[in-house]
Amino acid sequence: MKILLIGATGMIGSRVAAEARARGHEVTGVTRSGRDGTARAEARDADAVAKLAGGHDAVVLAVAPPRDGSETVEPLLADGRGVLAGARRAGVRRVVIVGGAGSLEVAPGTRLVDTPDFPDLYRNEALAQGALLDAVRAEAGDLDWTYISPAAEIGPGERTGEFRLGGDRLLADAEGNSRISAEDYAVALVDELENPQAVGRRITVAY
């Protein structure tokens, strides 16, 4: 499989690239800087995305909004819409998005980001990721998209290959912890690329 990976050097993107390549897939990495052997392009530049996506089987978007206190929603929406438009122009139907956990429900109608103890540091990012999910649901019906939310906590760790998959509800263990390693998140994402089970919907992955 030929995969265009936008955000290939980030914490999650780099692990998706490594996992996909370890399974024999061809990964074209894309970053804003063009460093570390990646192609240089902005996700919001649909023409650039289309040019790079030509001949690929799937496009993966693994970018996050800025954490510098600036506006977060519109930049991420612009990136998401640029990737969707670029994939369409290139004739690539399969799009997988690295999403956020804040839009997952902890109770019917209550998202994690809306709970009182949600960290302020991540609130704007979570709202932006939720807005992107809403936009994809509303605007990407012509594409074979999947939005994958991690657990509430994700970071570098061990690749175990053992995890649970869910839908729109936050997954937690018996002690109430919701976590996943970035390595196992990457396993779940590449699994979905290889064997699509969640086309046109959001899933989540956690221990």
TrEMBL record:
Residues 7-196 form the NAD(P)-binding domain. GO terms for molecular function: oxidoreductase activity, acting on the CH-NH group of donors, NAD or NADP as acceptor. It comes from the Bacteria. PANTHER family: FLAVIN REDUCTASE (NADPH). This is NAD-dependent epimerase/dehydratase family protein. It comes from Actinomadura logoneensis. The lineage of its organism: Bacteria, Bacillati, Actinomycetota, Actinomycetes, Streptosporangiales.
